[in-house]
Each structure stands twice: as C-alpha cells, then as structure tokens.
Amino acid sequence: MSLDKLYKRYPSLVCCKKDINQAIALIKECYKKDNKIITCGNGGSAADAEHIVGELMKGSRKKRKVSPKFRKQLSGIYPKEAKRICDNLQMPLPAISLTSHISFTTAFNNDMNPQFTFAQQLFGLGKKGDVLIALSTSGNAKNVINACRLAKILGIKTIALTGKNGGELKKICDVVIRVPEEDTLSIQEYHLPIYHTICSVIEDMFFEE
After folding, report:
1. What is the total count of domains within the chain?
2. Residue 76 falls inside a structural domain
3. Contact 187, 181 (CB under 8 A)
4. Which of 82, 160, 188, 194 has its CA 20 to 30 A from that of 25?
5. What is the torsion angle, in degrees rounded to the nearest 10, for the CA atoms of residue 15, residue 16, residue 19 and residue 23?
6. What is the rounded CA–CA span in Å between residue 177 and residue 163?
7. C-alpha–C-alpha distance, residues 182 and 124, integer Å
C-alpha cells in the first residue's frame, strides 16, 4: 500500500503523516547502514510485532531475487545446487521480534523482573544504528518502556505505535505515531495499515522487482 492510498482509505490518519514519514526515514537509514529492525509488544501488539518482521524478512509485493553477486558466490561453492537454492531464497530486510523467544522469556520472567524482559533481549541483540519498533496501545506498557529507555543508551533509534494519548512512550521515543483512537481494538485496527504501508514503502526503496 502506498502512502497516498493509506490516507485515501483512512483519511483520519492524515494527522499521523509527519510521524509516519519520520519513521520511514529512520528505517531507511537503518537499512542503508546494514543494521536491523527489532520489534516488541504485548498481546495483540505482540502479534503485530511478529507481523512486521514477516513483512520485512521476505518479499511482500516483490520477488526480491537474490543478488547476482550472491548467486555467483554460491555457484562457486555448490555449483550443482546453486540455482535451486537461489531460486528459493529472497533478499531480506533484517528484522527480529522479541516476542517469540519462549525459552528465554519464561526463564527470565521466572528468575528476574518480567518488566525488563524486552530490555534484556535488546541488551543482547541490539547494536548502535538498529531501530526498535515498539507497539503499545496505551503507550504505558512497562516492559516496552524499559526497552525504549535502554535503546537510547545503546544508540538504537525508537519508533512507537500507540493510541491517541501516547502515554509514557511519547516522552522517550524518537518517533511516536499516535493514531486518533483511544480503545485498544480501534487503535490496533489502525496500526496494521500503518505498518503495512511503511513496510511496503521501504520494500520499494530497496528492491526493484
């Protein structure tokens, strides 16, 4: 979905236009420097965090064929298998969700303060230049806030998707996309087309077909 189509289908999101553009700019810069996107959220927002990774790590509207350079390298090592391997791979936009690491999260939650689970993961996986996309309908989820606070220390830029109020996240994140709704269901209904569009725009920036 293009930005124009997003605002045509959801005219009430025009109020988020500046923040969406800033989010796209941060993500573009992240990928230009060979960094990665990290996502987190709770409940339905955890599902959205996973969804974002799915949009970035594989082709959405484009085939994202592997580069000729990679194909040549693979042919030099596995000449018989190179074509089959390359034909079944797509160029990724590196992204990882912090919501899926069940063994780690259950262990950490049992031994430590669960409000710092995402922060601990970010501490181990994040690096300067990465971008953290944090989803919280209220903007006040403690584990998400702690991850965003740590991100600032690590030199990781932060993009928050929240509801109208923005909560605590609006005070600490680099970009805050506050959709014009207050109840959880309506907020999440707006988050999906926003991140779909952002991922689509980013894909267009890095892949021709």
Report:
1. 1
2. no
3. yes
4. 188
5. -160
6. 8
7. 34
Count CB neighbours of 85 within 10 A: 15
SS3 content of the chain, % helix, strand, coil (to 5): 60, 10, 30
105 pLDDT more than 90:
yes
Average pLDDT of every residue of the chain: 97
CB atoms within 10 A of CB 114: 14
CA distance 34 to 32: 6
Relative to beta strand 157-162, strand 175-178 is parallel
pLDDT tens across 23-64, in order?
A: 999 999 999 999 999 999 999 999 999 999 999 999 989 999
Backbone angle region of 65, left / alpha / beta, with phi > 0 → left and psi within -120 to 50 → alpha: beta
Q: Tokens standing for 155?
A: 């030199």
